[in-house]
Amino acid sequence: xxxxxxxxxxxxxxxxxxxxxxxxxxxxxxxxxxxxxxxxxxxxxxxxxxxxxxxxxxxxxxxxxxxxxxxxxxxxxxxxxxxxxxxxxxxxxxxxxxxxxxxxxxxxxxxxxxxxxxxxxxxxxxxxxxxxxxxxxxxxxxxxxxxxxxxxxxxxxxxxxxxxxxxxxxxxxxxxxxxxxxxxxxxxxxxxxxxxxxxxxxxxxxxxxxxxxxxxxxxxxxxxxxxxxxxxxxxxxxxxxxxxxxxxxxxxxxxxxx
Length: 258
Prior knowledge:
Layout: E1 3-8, E2 11-16, H1 27-41, E3 48-52, E4 57-59, H2 64-69, H3 82-92, E5 97-101, E6 104-106, H4 108-111, E7 118-122, E8 126-128, H5 142-150, H6 152-161, E9 165-166, H7 167-172, E10 178-180, H8 182-197, H9 201-211, H10 216-233, H11 237-247
Helix pairs in contact: 1-3, 5-6, 5-10
């Protein structure tokens, strides 16, 4: 199974389990995660969600071969693509969501963290939002949520340049809650999840809802606008050059485009 889910003592754990592909996410994996999160909203025994990957890699982002195979569905007006279902489910989860991040968190691997409530990272964690480097734009409201979290200038630097940043910097700019030694990451995240699970569920869920009460509609509207641009830009020459360069293992040449 490429997505492992377990429920134990009120904690739903979602575990990326595709190490041979650096936990690159497929549409099937997104669907499994969306279904698990949506089901958790209906299960009163679940009090908190924990998302994690492997010690060496959180996720390399989208599996580009799978993503391009399904790219046409991103423009669908009828069936919501699994990646959209997952991000909407994550944003609408009624229970707190904790992420335990080690190794690389590329593209949507970092974007999804913006919709989590607590983020703990190992000292080997590395975050990146390389959308401009791929001829694309931010996704899933990251243009709005990221600058609300860390400020405009810092968010602009990360989103415009698309350069990776390490766990310590992520902590210093206010993106994550704590940096831990790799061996301590998952036990600490599980400990924090257990603390939340032991508290009154109604109080926890209401507190989360109140904290997010002014954001959901803005987030959905920004998601929709970004996703329209993102889907359109997949067909632009710059994106085609970026993806071709990736598959050919060379540096893309964007100077040929105006």
